[in-house]
Structure formats: structure tokens, C-alpha cells
Amino acid sequence: MNEQIFGIHGAALELRSQRMGVLASNIANAATPGYKARDIDFSAALEARLNGGTANASADAHLVYKLPTMPSLDGNTVELSREQVAFTENAVAYSATLAFVQGKVNTITRALKGE
Length: 115
Known about the structure:
By secondary structure, this protein is mainly α. The protein has helices at residues 2-6, 8-28, 42-50, 55-61, 80-113, and strands at residues 38-40, 63-65.
């Protein structure tokens, strides 16, 4: 039912939420020696989700390690400024997708009320 009503946006919202958690984990571990920064390949995960996969399975299957441009001596691959930019971009996209979904819900609610 989710796919029929919200189309791609329901799946995108779920994956963006999961990606936000992964990016937040990277930021939280910026000073942890040996921590390897990860990310979700959003496009591939969304495509897998739309082709019948579950949100958790497609997100986990498309979890990738990031390659740093400047490796640190302690083995940590988190580049804080890049993570913050990725987190912000994802948050903006999440908000835009959420606004679209809320608009759809409002339209359906008005239609059910006969407005």
C-alpha cells in the first residue's frame, strides 16, 4: 500500500533516515582510532528497494566504506567536514521528501473528508 500511495518517496524517506544514522555514527566516531567511515549507496539501495527488497536489506547490502582523501595516522577514515556536508545534504533531501509525503497525506485526508 505504501508503494501505491507514496511511490518512490516512501522508500526514499526510509533509506534517507537510515543513511542519516550511518552518517551520524561517522561524525560521532571522528576521534575513534581505527574507525572506518561508512555510507549507504543511496541510488543503488533505492533501486533495490523499488525492485522488491526490504528497506533494511537494501540499505545493509549497499553499505560501503568511504576512502579518505587524507588518511590519518591512527587509521580513522572519518573526514569530519565531508561527513558534515553529507549529513546536511541528506537532511535537506529528507526534509524535502517528508514535505512531499505530508502533502500527499494532506491531499488524501481532504479527499476523504470531501473538501
